[in-house]
Design brief:
heterodimer, A: about 120 residues, seven-stranded mixed beta sheet, about 0% helix, B: about 110 residues, mainly beta, five-stranded mixed beta sheet, four-stranded antiparallel beta sheet
Chain lengths: ~120, ~110
């Protein structure tokens, strides 16, 4: 199947700093990418949907100015957590897909963010 | 939005067949049913996808009745390594990828 990578896999940062997470589709062009956040023992929470070349659509309750998403190319989307705080510590996962009905989503391995 | 309902948890023993059922009463005509597996601290992994009747691949089978309001993931002869959380999603045109709570499967020796 298709491969999606994320970088970094783990990051520790100080409170108030910004962190950028990259999501890449390695062997296919992803017209749509999704960003999720997952807390321990919980399900994945969809944060936003991004389509290449257009602004991301954020889920209710997700601050677009805090979680900046850029989908500049068909193989790369980035999530920037701005002015991170300890409560932003979580597991962030992206997924990518081609825009076809019923097309499978392929998920990245996730990024563990710890804000001190 | 086709919400899904799954059992919170299931236990099984090695070598048994496990069937996990997902309810999606509001499924629409164009919706596909997709199942994912997730291990701790990893991204979900695609297992199987179907639209109707039965789909089988090398790891699982998916049974979908005619009304498509439910689906059953069947894992033959599970092993300890199948202990994971299993999610069923109902997806149309990639516009809705919200996850339900999932089913935590524990396989015991």
């Amino acid at each position: 199947g298709a491969v999606v990578s994320q970088h970094p896999s783990r990051v520790i940062c100080k409170s108030g700093t910004s962190v950028k997470i990259e999501c890449r589709s390695l062997d296919f062009q992803a017209t749509t990418m999704f960003w999720y956040r997952q807390f321990p023992k919980q399900s994945l929470m969809l944060m936003a949907t991004s389509n290449e070349g257009s602004k991301a659509t954020y889920e209710q309750g997700v601050e677009k100015d805090k979680f900046l998403i850029n989908h500049a190319s068909l193989t790369l989307s980035t999530l920037t957590v701005t002015s991170a705080h300890p409560e932003d510590s979580s597991f962030y996962i992206c997924s990518a897909s081609q825009l076809r009905v019923g097309e499978t989503q392929y998920f990245g391995p996730g990024t563990r963010l710890l804000v001190l | 939005l086709a919400k899904t309902t799954q059992p919170v948890s299931m236990d099984s023993y090695e070598g048994q067949e496990v069937n996990i059922t997902c309810s999606h009463n509001n499924i629409a005509t164009n919706d596909y049913i997709t199942w994912y597996q997730q291990f701790p601290s990893q991204g979900p992994r695609f297992i199987i996808q179907g639209y109707k009747t039965k789909v089988t691949n090398e790891v699982a089978s998916l049974f979908i009745p005619a009304d498509r309001k439910s689906s059953t993931l069947s894992l033959p002869r599970v092993s300890l390594s199948d202990t994971a959380v299993y999610y069923c999603l109902v997806v149309v045109s990639n516009n809705d990828m919200r996850f339900g709570a999932g089913t935590r499967l524990t396989v015991k020796p």
